[in-house]
């Protein structure tokens, strides 16, 4: 097994342990656990970055959907660590770490999704590049949406109010969801458009009937619906945030679908 492959085992373990640390501090008031979780995330990010560099050197097929999924996880973790330094976002670690763990595990044992050598790859980098940026932003958006939903539930139920010191204000969480979703949707739109153009440039069958394309379009529609009801109709409550959660769920299924179909 290549070195870059076995590096992923401690990375996945670190994500799982970090999830436990963040959960213990936020919901059980175990002081210092979040700091340990942060240390585990930093170590995981370093190892995962090394694994990505190792794979890019060893594999002539880089960059495919496996690497794209791995880069998404890495970027979400790094972005969270940077965001946590500027905003009171410790509670988001409760959602970022399981997300990183689950996406990483869901990719295990599936085909790598290599692009055939005879295909024109001029569209590959812009297509997967904007998709990586879009899914990263939307991954952070769904974590912020879950932070909003949890904080709102605690405020309404009056149970576990001490945990609110780890949460941003509802207004801050809402603004983050809107900004991240807007950026992520624009990148997702560009990714879908370049994918369609790539198919037509290769004289390949129209992708509209493929399940993974339909899942992508379904996710796009949900995110667009969220922005419409939030910005035009003024919905700011939990119902709108659940649309983000559903949309990202479809995106994860799309990522898995690209590898299964490879």
Set down the secondary structure blueprint.
Blueprint: H1 3-6, H2 8-28, H3 33-58, H4 65-86, H5 93-106, H6 124-157, H7 170-201, H8 211-231, H9 238-260
Helix pairs in contact: 2-3, 2-5, 3-4, 4-5, 4-6, 5-6, 6-7, 6-9, 7-8, 8-9
Would you write up a description of this structure?
This protein is an all-alpha fold. It has one domain (3-260). It is 75% helix and 0% strand. It has helices at residues 3-6, 8-28, 33-58, 65-86, 93-106, 124-157, 170-201, 211-231, 238-260. It is flat and about 60 Å long. The model has no long low-confidence stretch (mean pLDDT 83).
Structural key phrases:
262 residues, mainly alpha
Low-pLDDT windows of residues: none
Shape: flat
Beta-strand proportion = under 5%
Rg over C-alpha atoms, rounded to the nearest angstrom: 19 Å
Helix content: over 70%
Which class best fits the helix and strand makeup? mainly alpha
| First and last CA, distance | 21 Å
Give the helices and strands as they follow along the chain. HHHHHHHHH
The major sheet is characterized as:
none
How confident overall, as mean pLDDT? 83
Number of helices: 9
Number of domains: 1
